[in-house]
Fold:
Amino acid sequence: GACCSYRLRDALHPLWQSPLTIPGGTRQSPINIQWRDSVYDPFLKPLKISYDPTTCLHIWNNGYSFLVEFDDSTDRSVIVGGPLENQYRLKQFHFHWGAINEWGSEHTVDSKFYPAELHLVHWNAVVYPTFEEAVMEGNGLAVIGVFLKLGAHHEGLQTLVDALPAVKHKDAVIEFDVFDPSCLIPSCPDYWTYAGSLTTPPLTESVTWIIKKKPIEVDENQLEAFRMLLFTSDGEEEKRMVDNFRPLQPLMNRTVRSSFQ
Ligand SMILES: Cc1ccn(O)c(=O)c1
Ligand SMILES: [Zn+2]
Structure:
């Protein structure tokens, strides 16, 4: 039965030796979003995004993606509204991408992969004292997912792309002190939302996902710039940082809600 095959999928994923599924997990991410099965919820509010570009700190290669981290010691860069009951503070954003343009995103829409996906990670500083504690709680995190599709050059992304050669290797970090991530979020307000998990260890079921319906467009050179990063540290045998996405997880007893009809 489902339970048995579910257990069987508990193999170790080559990338970071973490289980593909959490034993007993009921709200794992990523998932396929079947558009026609999503349920319009008229009570969903518009998502309100207020980022202060000067809270940007640095970019670093953590050996799995590159993270742009923010000063989350105050409420200067926050989101509120949407499906959220509290205000959540921006901590970092990062991407997941493929070796080729045919795949790379973590979520899929009607089983379609995008070449990359942006995650803006926020935590519930109203209820929890630290990010580390919020990571362990059901309403601890809110992640905005934005799909990237191949198309026009993205001006805002280019400032980030220009800094990537400086963080080619695992553990490299570069100061990055002014950036407004709002430029990476589509102006269309439509989104899907569902209860899920982190897609990297500790895979905790603490994320309210807010997946934007519209993708942003980036060009081939910009995607290639992601693919020239390395999983490996300086001096090690080079392994290109590609296909850093988790496999799809079972929807189980969940409904994906949409903010639009
Ligand atoms: C906190 C966290 C860590 C990794 N990923 O992929 C996420 O989307 C969120
Ligand atoms: Zn992510």
Summary: The CA atoms of residues 188 and 214 lie 7 Å apart. The chain has a mean pLDDT of 94. Residues 119, 121, 143, 198-200 surround 1-hydroxy-4-methylpyridin-2(1H)-one (ligand 1) (CB under 6 Å).
